Here is the input.
Amino acid sequence: MQGEKISTKEELDRVASGFMSSRVVLSAFELGIFSALGPEGAGSAQVAQRLGLDARGADRLMNACVVIGLLNKQDSRFTNSGLAAQYLHRDSPDYMAGLGHIVQLWNGWHTLSDAVRAGSSVRERKNGSRDTKSFIAAMHSRARQTAPKLVEHLYLSRVKRALDLGGGSGAMVMELCRAQKDLRATVLDTGEVIPLTRRYVEEAGLSGRIDCLEGDFTKDEYGTGYDLIILSAIMHIYSPDQNTGILKRCARALNPGGRAVIRDFLVNPERDGPNRAVMFALNMLVNTEAGDSYSEQEISSWLKTAGFGAVERIDLDQQSALVIGTKLN
Here is the structure.
């Protein structure tokens, strides 16, 4: 019910117990239930044997998937629904690999009460680190949808070099390179991520135009000579002071007149809307030390402190927007 207000007792009950269906989907995905079923289907005992699961546990989970419509069942044989076959079977071109990241988010969100008490994430102490491969797969899927919208607003004719901070798979700069044939780009990310970046870039056939740079953009310098720096879904991970420091490094790396392009969920000044940004603030509370959802006004103030002049906002959709700062000469 994200985006809707609860107005009846029945809706309240449905939202409060909604985690049950969510956990069924995530566990079946995580365990490989959908991918273990071919077109001919199989009994739950067969699936349990293939996946090394308890037979009774697999049977109960698969029947729950029938109830919510992701599996069909006839004569004790289970098959994927059309939806599951398209999005939840790993051999499908539309496979939602990014659900592995949602599995990881679950581990953070169940600590929400403790995080509110502490005022910061307690997840690391309780649940360990994230699954980087699943996280990058999720971000790649989302970036592929967002990148064309971003490119529409960037006027790339004068952009020769671009940098993507925390670029993950490189999906954003891949789209820049496709749109502007003489543009070269660099993705800066951690040593844990860069090997995955190289694989995505190579698969896209853009290894000759996209370089990969290993580093920590909260501490390291980025080099110089860039016309454009993209910070897509970056600001919300860090504190205001950290974000100001990142933008100061951007200013040092950009040519005069270069632009820092920030894409994120923006809250209103009262922090009570829009829905996605408000909920995302809680996601940052449970999963990061100091992250948050920020307003246009907050981001603009960091840009100006860092040495950027004109600041422009462009709404991409109802939930996310660009805030673009141009470096002073």
